[in-house]
Amino acid sequence: xxxxxxxxxxxxxxxxxxxxxxxxxxxxxxxxxxxxxxxxxxxxxxxxxxxxxxxxxxxxxxxxxxxxxxxxxxxxxxxxxxxxxxxxxxxxxxxxxxxxxxxxxxxxxxxxxxxxxxxxxxxxxxxxxxxxxxxxxxxxxxxxxxxxxxxxxxxxxxxxxxxxxxxxxxxxxxxxxxxxxxxxxxxxxxxxxxxxxxxxxxxxxxxxxxxxxxxxxxxxxxxxxxxxxxxxxxxxxxxxxxxxxxxxxxxxxxxxxxxxxxxxxxxxxxxxxxxxxxxxxxxxxxxxxxxxxxxxxxxxxxxxxxxxxxxxxxxxxxxxxxxx
Length: 324
Fold this sequence. Notes:
This protein is an alpha+beta fold.
């Protein structure tokens, strides 16, 4: 196996910044050499098991698909309850009883933990096949682990590149500001949404979108004039800014509508954040309608925007009826 390993070493991984292309190259190599129907790089996020990259020739699994982490062979392997390589997974009791095996046919398995630079679990490099494999495949565990380590380095490079990308985006947003609030404007929002989707998709990282509507603005403009409405907008923007952590980017989409892009934000953090915003705005005396939605790996941020808007409009309709 030395010749196989030396034909595809860490030194040969191109530092193009294209993580997905490099991981696909690795998965394609492994699939061609070992014949498993499915090779994947996966990511764990809470209860979710997310496919970052897939090389599939039989299971119909795609990049961005989401499964239950607890159902997988990989969750058992990471806990040390099952082996990294199972030439016949039916001979491993915990794999035989795993939920994933009841959903799709699996008789052979390879799994390698993939970790972040801080030692926490990112996900796994893994493979499954509906037919048993030769026991001799177990001799290649060092090679599979080597590829796992290469992927860990690629992820580390990617995260460093993303820091630079976020700094460049922040600089760009300062050029597209709404003069009333100082927040980036609608054009900046659309540009940021596109760039954040490209970034998030590379590692299938979580993100969320919060939409806020300042309910009092129209009535204020009508009853006390535009100057009062402008003052209300500026006070609201200042109060919102006070609530925002560094990973939350605010925008004024137009009129009374605002958006906040929550980068690297998991569902629990998103729920805590919207609760904080609602409490803060109520305390400051602002009447708002709001909606929030998570990015789904198989759909992207545009769908999250639509869902957050829908929730906000539903919330606004309820608030109007309650006030009537």
